[in-house]
Amino acid sequence: MNEWRLDASEAAAFGRVAVIMGGRSAEREISLRSGAEVLRGLQAAGVDAFAVDLAADGRDPVAQLLQADFDRAFLILHGRGGEDGTIQGLLEMMHKPYTGSGVCASALGMDKLRCKLLWQGAGLPTPAFAVLDEGADLGAVEARLGYPIMVKPAHEGSSIGMSKVRTRAELEAAFAQATAYDSSVIAEQWVDGPEFTVAVLGHETLPVIRLETPHDFYDFTAKYEAADTAYHFRTALSPEQTESLQQLVQQAFKIAGCHGWGRVDVMMDANGQFQLLEVNTAPGMTDHSLVPMAAREAGISFSQLVVEILRTTGERE
Ligand SMILES: Nc1ncnc2c1ncn2[C@@H]1O[C@H](COP(=O)(O)OP(=O)(O)O)[C@@H](O)[C@H]1O
Ligand SMILES: [Mg+2]
C-alpha cells in the first residue's frame, strides 16, 4: 500500500532508530498502538528501525535504554514518564538525538496548569481556570468560573479523569475523581466550541481539523472507541479565521519551546475567540489518530510523515 521509500543513502544516514513506546503511564496501550504504526511506517520507508517497549513486563526503563543499541530515538511515549521531559533528559545525558520537544517543553506540555500560566503570561488566550486543592474555596471557584465547569487532572492525557460538572455536588465528586489520577487538578471555564486541533510538523501547520462528537466532550471513548466522532476538514472557518488559528497555534508552540512536531488543541468560545486547551508534544500516531489524518489531507503519507518527524531530530533552540 505504501510505496514511498527513502533513498537508501538517506535511510542509512539515520542509523539505527529505536522507536521508544509503551512506558508506565495510563496511556501505555495507546502508545503501543502508536509505536507499532510508527515502526511500520519507518521500516516501509527503508529506515533501520526497531521497537523498544519501555517498562514491558516490569522492566527498568533506564536499564533498557542503556542496553539498547541505537543511533537516534523516535519517541512515541504518551503521558508521564515519557512525554514529560524525563526520557528526554536521559537521552540528552546519553548524547542520543531524539524526535520532538526537548526537556523543558516536554515537561510543560505535560503540565496543563503551568502551560496555561505561561500562555496567559504571553498574552495568549486560554480558558479561565482555578487550581483545585484541599484548601480550595469551591464557592469562589464556581462564582468566578460559572457552570458548567471542566475538571481535569493537570498531568493526564486522553481525557482521563476529566468531567464536565454543572453543580456543587458534581464539582466535589469530579474533584475527588481527578485527585485519584493527579495531585494537581484544575477547574476550567467551559467553552462551548466548536473544537479544533492543529498539527505542527517542522515549522508548518498541517490542515486544521474540526472535531464533532455527540458526547459532552471529546472524552476517552470518543477518542478511541466511538464510531460517531466526526473529523471535518471543512471547518466552517473563514480563510482569515483559519489563518489566525494557525498563527495562534504556531505562537503557542513556540512560546512553550516545542520542537519538531506536535498538536495543539483549541476551542472557539461564544464570542468567536479561539481558546488554547493544551499542546501535545508526542501526540497519538495510531491509524485513527489526528496527526496522520491531517498529514494525509496535506498529501503526506504515513511513511513520509514519520520520516519528516525523524528529520527534525535534535538541533533544538
Ligand atoms: N474548558 C473546556 N471546555 C469544554 N470542553 C473542554 C474544555 N477543556 C477540555 N475540553 C474537552 O475535553 C477534551 C480533552 O481535554 P484536553 O485539555 O485536550 O486534555 P487531554 O490531554 O485529555 O486531551 C478536549 O478535546 C475537549 O473536547
Ligand atoms: Mg487534548
From TrEMBL:
Intracellular or extracellular location(s): Cytoplasm
Function summary: Cell wall formation.
PROSITE patterns linked to this entry: ATP_GRASP, DALA_DALA_LIGASE_1, DALA_DALA_LIGASE_2
Gene3D superfamilies: 3.40.50.20, ATP-grasp fold, A domain, ATP-grasp fold, B domain
HAMAP family per record: Dala_Dala_lig
Cofactor(s) the record lists: Mn(2+); Mg(2+)
Keywords: ATP-binding, Cell shape, Cell wall biogenesis/degradation, Cytoplasm, Ligase, Magnesium, Manganese, Metal-binding, Nucleotide-binding, Peptidoglycan synthesis
Protein name, per record: D-alanine--D-alanine ligase
Gene that specifies this protein: ddl
GO biological process: cell wall organization; peptidoglycan biosynthetic process; regulation of cell shape
Catalytic residues, chain numbering: 27, 158, 289
PANTHER family recorded: D-ALANINE--D-ALANINE LIGASE, D-ALANINE--D-ALANINE LIGASE B
Gene Ontology molecular function: any one: metal ion binding
Catalytic activity field: 2 D-alanine + ATP = D-alanyl-D-alanine + ADP + phosphate + H(+)
Binding site for Mg(2+) 1: 265, 278
This protein's pathway: Glycan biosynthesis; Cell wall biogenesis; peptidoglycan biosynthesis
Any single GO CC term annotated in Swiss-Prot or TrEMBL for this entry: cytosol
SUPFAM superfamilies linked: Glutathione synthetase ATP-binding domain-like, PreATP-grasp domain
Similarity comment: Belongs to the D-alanine--D-alanine ligase family.
Organism from which the protein derives: Marinobacterium iners DSM 11526
